[in-house]
């Protein structure tokens, strides 16, 4: 089973940027869409962004559109989430996960469609 490890979180000020990475343990990663989700204390896990296996399709939550960019490097078994103009409301534990379905050409946005969750990386935006 593919294992995912998130990294790149930290404590930043409003307006700063961070780049999160999601590294997979196996090449099988390359055949699956990747989703980024986040969960703030006391809130439900929410969709942030997703990218298809070929990187030909992406989707973003409205709250992060134009500020966040998802990408992937299949040769490195890694996906990225570039986060710019961070806001306090972006504070959360960020997770990456694999789509249940291999080679899906559309990008799905519900947590139930994903598996192999990482342990998350904390992002805190505070002045």
What are the salient characteristics of this protein?
127 residues; mainly beta; four-stranded antiparallel β-sheet; 11 strands; 48% strand
Q: Could you characterize the architecture of this molecule?
A:
- This protein is mostly beta strands.
- 0% of the residues lie in helices and 48% in strands.
- It contains no helices and 11 strands.
- Strands 2, 4, 5, 6, 9, 10 and 11 form a 7-stranded mixed β-sheet that branches.
- The protein is globular.
- The termini are far apart.
Short description:
The protein has strands at 4-7, 10-12, 18-24, 32-39, 46-51, 58-60, 68-73, 78-83, 92-102, 114-115, 121-125.
Proportion of residues in helical segments:
under 10%
Largest sheet: 7 strands, mixed
Question: Which regions are unreliable across 5 or more consecutive residues at pLDDT < 50?
Answer: none
The ordered H/E elements are EEEEEEEEEEE
N- and C-termini, Cα separation: 40 Å
Helix-strand layout with pairing:
Blueprint: E1 4-7, E2 10-12, E3 18-24, E4 32-39, E5 46-51, E6 58-60, E7 68-73, E8 78-83, E9 92-102, E10 114-115, E11 121-125
Parallel strand pairs: 2-11
Antiparallel strand pairs: 1-3, 3-8, 4-5, 4-9, 5-6, 7-8, 9-10, 9-11
């Amino acid at each position: 089973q593919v294992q995912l490890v998130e990294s790149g979180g930290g404590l930043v000020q409003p307006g700063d940027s961070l780049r999160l990475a999601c590294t997979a343990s196996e090449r099988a990663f390359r055949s699956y869409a990747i989703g980024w989700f986040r969960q703030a204390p006391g809130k439900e896990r929410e969709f942030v962004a997703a990218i298809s296996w070929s990187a030909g399709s992406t989707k973003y939550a409205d709250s992060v559109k134009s500020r966040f960019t998802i990408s992937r490097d299949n040769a490195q078994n890694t996906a990225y989430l570039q986060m710019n103009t961070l806001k306090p409301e972006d504070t959360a534990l960020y997770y990456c996960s694999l789509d249940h379905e291999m080679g899906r050409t559309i990008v799905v946005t519900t947590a139930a469609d994903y598996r192999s969750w990482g342990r998350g990386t904390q992002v805190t935006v505070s002045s």
